């Protein structure tokens, strides 16, 4: 059986040949190549990684919880766009909640938490890949429809807060279905030579074909399709706005709609900046056979940390770009007399 572990931990250093994808992907690494503890101390990664992930966890949990609280409590924040932002924050919060368990496994260098929690943690790790980009895809579709309706001077009676709730639920169901194969293959693997346990994806024979399939599966469903959809939507959106400026003196979007569109675009750009290296590593793994070097290992950890960091950046983007969010948060954080 081929066994693949949690992302960002224990890169294979037991031989000269290394699978670059396994260093950076949520599908992790081969437990037969779990490095000795001296490797961590030699590279200082044993200490540095828990610190980085702890910062991501603390900042992400605080920021996304604040976003959830403001949107749920402030009446004026209950908009269609904010419903999608709420679900994006929930997905990020869910991921940051399990980071301490990943950190514990890294420090202990084995998995002590059992089979059920292993499946839960690996599933949530994979939710993090798909949920962010799918909610951003939905937000991009929503922005395109808003721009299209504004340019055509049409109303959108179907664009309601209730409809946004239903769409968000459908996105969650879709992501659960996409991630379900990884949940099935997740389990605790015990190495025969020393009994060390790892939380891994255990693929049946032929292992190589299963691993290649899982890479292509993640690349297509988690990156190629949603990003292509987003790029097409924004290209069409810019084309329509350009024609609107050429053919009419009217503004294509009013001030409020323009700000929301810009905010969604920037959140999307940051997401792609954080996740594109992760998915490019999949392409590298499918097309090359890299040798294991300290430099490559350093790159793998950087890519993993960058993808994790996306879960704590969005709240700051909302605070800087969304006046209504900033005002609602300030109002709700003010001390009120009893």
Question: What would your notes on this structure say?
Answer:
The protein is mostly helical. It has a single domain, classed as Rhodopsin 7-helix transmembrane proteins (Rhopdopsin 7-helix transmembrane proteins, Up-down Bundle), CATH 1.20.1070.10. It contains 10 helices and 3 strands; from the N terminus they run E-H-H-H-H-H-H-E-E-H-H-H-H. It has helices at 20-24, 37-43, 45-73, 80-108, 115-151, 161-185, 207-247, 255-287, 294-321, 323-333; strands at 2-5, 186-190, 197-203. The protein has a 3-stranded antiparallel beta sheet with strand order 1-3-2. A hairpin with a 6-residue loop joins strand 2 and strand 3 (197-203). The longest helix has 41 residues, at 207-247. The radius of gyration is 22 Å and the shape is globular. The model is unreliable at 1-42 (pLDDT under 50).
């Amino acid at each position: 059986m081929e066994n693949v572990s949690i992302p960002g931990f224990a890169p294979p250093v037991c031989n000269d040949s290394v699978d670059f994808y396994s260093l950076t992907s949520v599908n992790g690494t081969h437990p037969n190549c779990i490095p000795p503890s001296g490797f961590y101390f030699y590279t200082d990664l044993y200490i540095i990684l828990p610190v980085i992930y702890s910062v991501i966890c603390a900042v992400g949990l605080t920021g996304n919880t604040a976003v959830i609280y403001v949107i749920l409590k402030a009446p004026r924040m209950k908009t269609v766009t904010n419903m999608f932002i709420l679900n994006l924050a929930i997905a990020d919060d869910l991921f940051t909640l399990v980071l301490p368990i990943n950190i514990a496994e890294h420090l202990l260098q084995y998995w002590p938490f059992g089979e059920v929690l292993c499946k839960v943690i690996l599933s949530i790790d994979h939710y993090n890949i798909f949920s962010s980009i799918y909610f951003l895809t939905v937000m991009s579709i929503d922005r395109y429809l808003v721009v299209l309706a504004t340019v055509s001077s049409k109303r959108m009676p179907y664009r309601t807060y209730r409809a946004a709730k239903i769409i968000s639920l459908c996105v969650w169901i879709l992501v659960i279905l996409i991630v379900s194969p990884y949940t099935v293959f997740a389990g605790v693997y015990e190495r025969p030579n020393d009994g060390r346990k790892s939380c891994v994806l255990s693929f049946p024979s032929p292992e190589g074909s299963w691993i290649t399939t899982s890479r292509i599966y993640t690349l297509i469903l988690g990156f190629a399709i949603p990003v292509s959809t987003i790029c097409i939507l924004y290209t069409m959106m810019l084309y329509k706005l350009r024609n609107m400026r050429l053919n009419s003196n009217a503004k294509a979007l009013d001030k409020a709609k323009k700000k929301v569109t810009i905010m969604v675009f920037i959140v999307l750009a940051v997401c792609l900046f954080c996740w594109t290296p992760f998915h490019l590593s999949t392409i590298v793994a499918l097309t090359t056979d890299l040798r294991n070097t300290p430099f490559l290992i350093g790159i793998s950890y950087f890519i993993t940390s960058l993808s994790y960091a996306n879960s704590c950046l969005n709240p700051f983007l909302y605070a800087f770009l969304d006046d209504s969010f900033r005002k609602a948060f300030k109002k709700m954080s003010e001390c009120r007399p009893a």
